[in-house]
Write a structure and sequence with these properties.
Length: 337
């Protein structure tokens, strides 16, 4: 099956203006399904969360769905999904909270490969606390970020390593797992800027070794919303400034002010946004029979983190299936994109 670029382009209303949008790395246009999700949220009526009326309940459901969608996208827990206006704002917020535990003599490692949003917040936080900043250098001949240098940069005084998952200029993808392993060996935390990697590669924060992983949905066809995902227990150990009546638990304590609820609906629409059962129903309507759920592999579904999100879709081929069956399946799945 070939990639139907015309069908994909038709999903993006903005492309009808005749311009060639080659600025995707700075931010993508949004498809109709995202626009409709945001419009539907406003049309249905939304209110601040925590109320006893339906509009408040709708906002609460939007937030929960957004957290789950981002957890699905990154391999994180929905209870560890921090939402905010953009990655830069959230990184400053995390730098403020994390640096409260730093002292003179502590060290932070940043890289010259990174976007400044994953450098300056840490450099400035280190300066306030009297901590030392150490720099991982780029090999200018290859534009790679050599892992070996981290063996010299990391010490028992290292508190945090900030590194990108992909350069926003040259596309270099550092060996995150190796860098994280070295950082963890000396007790340091790892903050990964995934803004430019997320649109292009599968994301698994555990496999990356990221203690914090940041991404922005406007880089992958969503609205201007940023997120940082982390282990809820790690977030619970941090105490950012907040208003007295604001949520005290995580992740809410990191989310200042009232959320842009309609935009959060757009984030969920930009990620898959369908349960396995909904996918199975979509396929059945196109005369394709598949199974959905845990398929009675209860323990495996739990180990893979699929049990609570509805399981998975299982399409099984046997001797009487032909190419036409496969083509029908692929065409039906393509409609979900």
């Amino acid at each position: 099956m070939t990639f139907d670029v015309n069908r994909v382009r038709a999903a993006y209303p903005a492309l009808s203006d005749g311009f060639a949008y080659l600025d995707g790395a700075a931010g993508t246009q949004v498809p109709a399904v995202v626009i409709e999700a945001i419009t539907d949220a406003y049309r249905s009526g939304i209110g601040n969360v925590g109320g006893t009326f339906p509009a408040s309940d709708r906002s609460g459901a939007i937030v929960a769905e957004c957290r789950q969608a981002l957890a699905d996208l990154t391999g994180a827990s929905p209870d560890g999904v921090v939402l905010g206006p953009n990655m830069t704002t959230l990184t400053y917020r995390l730098a403020e909270a994390l640096s409260r535990r730093w002292e003179p003599g502590d060290e932070v490692v940043v890289s010259r490969l990174d976007h400044d949003a994953n450098i300056r917040p840490w450099v400035q936080a280190a300066a306030r606390r009297g901590a030392t900043v150490r720099w991982a250098e780029v090999d200018l001949a290859t534009t790679e970020l050599p892992v070996a240098q981290y063996g010299e940069l990391l010490t028992e005084h290292t508190r945090l390593v900030a590194v990108t998952a992909a350069s926003n200029v040259v596309g270099t993808r550092p060996d995150l797992a190796a860098i994280a392993a070295a950082a963890h060996a000396v007790g340091a935390l790892v903050y990964v800027d995934g803004v430019h990697a997320t649109p292009h590669i599968p994301v698994d924060v555990a496999a990356f070794g990221a203690d914090f992983y940041a991404t922005s949905s406007y880089k992958w066809s969503g609205p201007h919303i940023g997120t940082v995902v982390a282990d809820p227990a790690l977030l619970d150990s941090l105490h950012p400034d907040r208003l007295a009546p604001a949520p005290a638990g995580v992740p809410g304590r990191f989310e200042r002010g009232t959320a842009a609820f309609a935009d959060l609906a757009g984030v969920a629409a930009a990620v898959a946004g369908r349960t396995p059962r909904q996918v199975a129903e979509h396929l059945a309507a196109r005369q394709v029979n598949v199974w959905n759920g845990d398929n009675y592999a209860w323990e495996l579904a739990g180990a893979l983190g699929l049990r609570d999100s509805g399981g998975a879709i299982r399409a099984g081929l046997v001797h009487y299936n032909d190419q036409a069956d496969v083509d029908r399946l692929l065409a039906a799945v393509a409609e979900l994109a």
